[in-house]
Amino acid sequence: MTDFHSLGLARPILLALDSAEYSTPTPIQAQAIPLVLEGRDLLGIAQTGTGKTAAFSLPMIDRLLATNIRPSPRGTRGLVLAPTRELADQIATNIRKYAAKARMNVNVVIGGVPIGRQIRMMSRGLDILVATPGRLIDLYDRRALHFDDLEFFVLDEADQMMDLGFIHALKRIASLLPKDRQSLFFSATMPKEIADLAASFLTDPAQVAVTPAATTVERVSQAVAHVPAGRKPAVLGDILSTDEVTRAIVFTRTKRGADRVSRTLEEKGIAAVAIHGNKSQGQRQKALAGFSSGRLKVLVATDIAARGIDIGGVSHVVNYEMPDVPETYVHRIGRTARAGASGQAISLVSADERGQLRAIERLTKQALDVMSGFEPQPGEEVEPRRGNGGRGRGQSRPNGGNARDGKPQGNRSRGGEARGKRFSADNESGFGGRSRKSSEVGRPNRRPRQAEGERAGR
Ligand code: AMP
Hints:
alpha/beta; Rossmann fold; 7-stranded parallel β-sheet; 18 helices; binds adenosine monophosphate
């Protein structure tokens, strides 16, 4: 098996990796590092959680160590662009860790914080700067930084950059950078517009790709609870109160929704905090620190705010509201089961979100286990009209006598007995059941069984 020593990295980097207790490169690292050390430009298709930060940072540090040129005032030798402030901070933290034995000056410029300190910080020049595009251009236009010393450039999360409307900023940055440099470009997806953007940054790039976004993380067990919208706050409270949930991220679609959910949880005595784009940088950092330290059990987040955040030990991801874009589901559930751990994802799906659920199941080629016990009561929620007929499930089905045991249909059918307590610790499958892969449980089992129940209830 490849180890970091055989990849050809310089000694100070290997020492830092020993301290970080990284023994084996991840696939993206094993593929990318030798190519970058050769001096190639690189196009990487990979998402967060694959180890891509080290895949670009380690060889960048190595290359900068090799040239060992002093940066001039306001210059930087390495530049990493990231779409969000949190991601920029996180990348810088990792680079500092990897460069700890390499005596490098690493710093960050992000929006939402006073610019004066950043102008002063740049005046001495840096080895590596991590930046969000808007603030970088702002500093350039104020002549607080220049790119004359630039040797190494990384653009991370290009697809997220596009989503956030950074295309013009990126084109401008591409026009400002010196031609004689090495460039790396990473994106989780590679539609044509992103490939075109990549072409404007890269020269004869090597390409590496790991785990396409459409395959959900293997170690995440996934389940769905069909819950009427009005009952979601109560169900979420029940789920998050159990002991199995040690650290959870709850996703909402809107900023207001995130605030509302975190307030509701606080009222129920569950320590929660919301992060989204309307929060100040200070508030976001404080929230993330509280969550990382374990002081807050639950982080309620919108997709953009949570993108790229890497906090270990997340036991559960709850989709309080289903995302419109099915790939977003894959990104969300990737927040748990990081770095070899396992995790659980639970989606609360109301009648009007079933289309999104079907799109997710098509994308992931997986039918998700259904947790029973949450179905609407008669008249509680009306199934929206759908043209396609087919796979819809009745909404007015009365609950069977033992339907509130909080277990997936699959498990119930095996065990048979009812358990009064939801999410009981002795539940063999943990949290309403570990979802088994559809290949193990036999996909057709689920839908027809559900459909039978539906008919019987009518
Ligand atoms: P990333 O995809 O860069 O966000 O990395 C995901 C997580 O994996 C981070 O917490 C890294 O610190 C960790 N990580 C990256 N590479 C390795 C490795 N080779 N061994 C162990 N952990 C790693």
